[in-house]
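Work Package 4 report. The design task specified in the project plan requires that, given a folded chain encoded as C-alpha coordinates, an amino acid be chosen for each position. We show below one input record used in the internal validation round.
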Protein backbone atom coordinates (compact mmCIF):
# COMPACT_ATOMS: atom_id res chain seq x y z
CA UNK A 1 0.00 0.00 0.00
CA UNK A 2 1.25 3.45 -0.94
CA UNK A 3 -0.07 6.85 0.10
CA UNK A 4 1.02 9.74 -2.09
CA UNK A 5 0.01 13.23 -3.12
CA UNK A 6 -2.40 13.50 -6.04
CA UNK A 7 -1.47 14.84 -9.46
CA UNK A 8 -3.78 16.32 -12.08
CA UNK A 9 -3.61 13.11 -14.11
CA UNK A 10 -5.27 11.30 -11.17
CA UNK A 11 -8.52 13.26 -11.56
CA UNK A 12 -10.36 10.74 -13.81
CA UNK A 13 -9.60 7.85 -11.45
CA UNK A 14 -10.67 9.95 -8.44
CA UNK A 15 -13.95 10.81 -10.13
CA UNK A 16 -14.56 7.16 -11.01
CA UNK A 17 -14.27 6.30 -7.32
CA UNK A 18 -16.45 9.15 -6.09
CA UNK A 19 -19.10 8.33 -8.71
CA UNK A 20 -19.77 5.07 -6.84
CA UNK A 21 -19.45 6.55 -3.35
CA UNK A 22 -22.90 7.86 -2.48
CA UNK A 23 -21.72 9.83 0.55
CA UNK A 24 -18.70 11.48 -1.13
CA UNK A 25 -18.88 15.01 -2.46
CA UNK A 26 -19.14 14.88 -6.24
CA UNK A 27 -16.81 17.47 -7.69
CA UNK A 28 -16.39 18.42 -11.34
CA UNK A 29 -13.23 18.27 -13.44
CA UNK A 30 -13.09 22.03 -13.08
CA UNK A 31 -13.26 21.82 -9.27
CA UNK A 32 -10.27 19.50 -9.17
CA UNK A 33 -8.31 21.34 -11.86
CA UNK A 34 -8.63 24.58 -9.89
CA UNK A 35 -6.84 22.89 -7.01
CA UNK A 36 -3.93 21.84 -9.19
CA UNK A 37 -3.74 25.18 -11.00
CA UNK A 38 -3.89 27.35 -7.89
CA UNK A 39 -0.71 28.64 -6.26
CA UNK A 40 -2.26 27.84 -2.87
CA UNK A 41 -1.74 24.12 -3.52
CA UNK A 42 1.96 24.80 -3.88
CA UNK A 43 1.99 26.41 -0.41
CA UNK A 44 0.25 23.50 1.30
CA UNK A 45 -3.12 25.23 1.58
CA UNK A 46 -4.92 22.22 0.19
CA UNK A 47 -3.87 18.56 0.11
CA UNK A 48 -5.13 15.55 -1.78
CA UNK A 49 -3.79 12.22 -0.54
CA UNK A 50 -4.28 9.02 -2.52
CA UNK A 51 -4.10 5.42 -1.36
CA UNK A 52 -2.82 3.02 -3.99
CA UNK A 53 -2.62 -0.77 -3.96
CA UNK A 54 -1.07 -2.82 -6.76
CA UNK A 55 -0.77 0.29 -8.95
CA UNK A 56 -4.51 1.00 -8.65
CA UNK A 57 -6.05 4.03 -6.98
CA UNK A 58 -8.28 2.76 -4.17
CA UNK A 59 -9.26 5.97 -2.42
CA UNK A 60 -8.51 9.60 -1.71
CA UNK A 61 -8.91 12.36 0.84
CA UNK A 62 -9.10 16.11 0.17
CA UNK A 63 -8.31 18.58 2.94
CA UNK A 64 -7.59 22.26 3.28
CA UNK A 65 -5.96 24.37 5.94
CA UNK A 66 -7.05 27.80 7.09
CA UNK A 67 -5.43 29.69 9.94
CA UNK A 68 -3.88 26.69 11.66
CA UNK A 69 -7.01 24.56 11.40
CA UNK A 70 -7.55 21.83 8.84
CA UNK A 71 -10.79 20.65 7.30
CA UNK A 72 -11.42 17.32 5.61
CA UNK A 73 -13.51 18.18 2.56
CA UNK A 74 -13.94 14.84 0.82
CA UNK A 75 -13.11 11.18 1.34
CA UNK A 76 -13.92 8.33 -1.02
CA UNK A 77 -12.84 4.69 -1.11
CA UNK A 78 -13.44 2.36 -4.07
CA UNK A 79 -16.45 0.10 -3.49
CA UNK A 80 -14.39 -3.11 -3.65
CA UNK A 81 -11.77 -1.69 -1.27
CA UNK A 82 -14.04 -0.64 1.60
CA UNK A 83 -13.80 -2.13 5.09
CA UNK A 84 -10.08 -2.81 4.69
CA UNK A 85 -8.69 0.10 6.70
CA UNK A 86 -7.84 2.37 3.77
CA UNK A 87 -9.91 5.27 5.08
CA UNK A 88 -8.24 4.81 8.46
CA UNK A 89 -4.82 5.05 6.81
CA UNK A 90 -5.77 8.21 4.90
CA UNK A 91 -7.10 9.94 8.01
CA UNK A 92 -3.97 8.92 9.93
CA UNK A 93 -1.75 10.39 7.20
CA UNK A 94 -3.73 13.61 7.24
CA UNK A 95 -3.47 13.91 11.02
CA UNK A 96 0.28 13.35 10.78
CA UNK A 97 0.59 16.08 8.11
CA UNK A 98 -1.55 18.51 10.08
CA UNK A 99 0.38 17.85 13.30
CA UNK A 100 3.72 18.33 11.50
CA UNK A 101 2.52 21.70 10.22
CA UNK A 102 1.45 22.86 13.67
CA UNK A 103 -2.31 22.54 13.27
CA UNK A 104 -4.46 23.10 16.34
CA UNK A 105 -7.48 21.12 15.10
CA UNK A 106 -9.05 19.21 12.22
CA UNK A 107 -12.74 19.56 11.34
CA UNK A 108 -15.12 17.73 9.05
CA UNK A 109 -18.80 17.19 8.51
CA UNK A 110 -20.55 13.96 7.68
CA UNK A 111 -24.10 12.90 6.95
CA UNK A 112 -25.90 11.97 10.14
CA UNK A 113 -26.78 8.57 8.63
CA UNK A 114 -23.22 7.70 7.55
CA UNK A 115 -22.44 5.33 10.41
CA UNK A 116 -19.28 3.91 8.83
CA UNK A 117 -17.70 7.35 8.45
CA UNK A 118 -18.77 8.43 11.92
CA UNK A 119 -17.23 5.28 13.42
CA UNK A 120 -13.99 5.93 11.51
CA UNK A 121 -13.66 9.48 12.84
CA UNK A 122 -14.65 8.52 16.38
CA UNK A 123 -11.96 5.82 16.30
CA UNK A 124 -9.43 8.64 15.70
CA UNK A 125 -10.86 10.60 18.69
CA UNK A 126 -12.84 13.13 16.68
CA UNK A 127 -15.74 14.40 18.79
CA UNK A 128 -19.06 15.81 17.69
CA UNK A 129 -18.85 19.58 17.92
CA UNK A 130 -22.06 20.70 16.25
CA UNK A 131 -24.71 20.14 13.63
CA UNK A 132 -25.70 21.85 10.44
CA UNK A 133 -29.44 21.40 10.02
CA UNK A 134 -30.65 20.27 6.58
CA UNK A 135 -27.11 20.72 5.20
CA UNK A 136 -27.27 17.88 2.68
CA UNK A 137 -29.71 17.49 -0.21
CA UNK A 138 -31.04 14.42 -1.99
CA UNK A 139 -31.89 13.23 0.53
CA UNK A 140 -32.15 16.15 2.88
CA UNK A 141 -30.20 15.43 6.01
CA UNK A 142 -28.29 17.08 8.84
CA UNK A 143 -24.51 17.24 8.85
CA UNK A 144 -22.71 16.25 12.02
CA UNK A 145 -19.61 18.39 12.56
CA UNK A 146 -16.63 16.61 14.10
CA UNK A 147 -13.46 18.08 15.58
CA UNK A 148 -10.10 16.56 16.39
CA UNK A 149 -7.98 18.68 18.73
CA UNK A 150 -4.23 18.21 18.93
CA UNK A 151 -2.75 18.08 22.42
CA UNK A 152 -0.70 21.18 23.17
Amino acid sequence: MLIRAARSEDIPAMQAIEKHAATAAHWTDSDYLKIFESPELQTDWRRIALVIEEDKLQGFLVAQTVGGEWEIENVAIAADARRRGLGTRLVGELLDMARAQGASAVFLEVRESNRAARALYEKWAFVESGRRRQYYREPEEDAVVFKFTFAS
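Helices lie at 11-19, 29-37, 39-42, 86-100, 115-123. Validation will be extended to a larger panel in the next phase.
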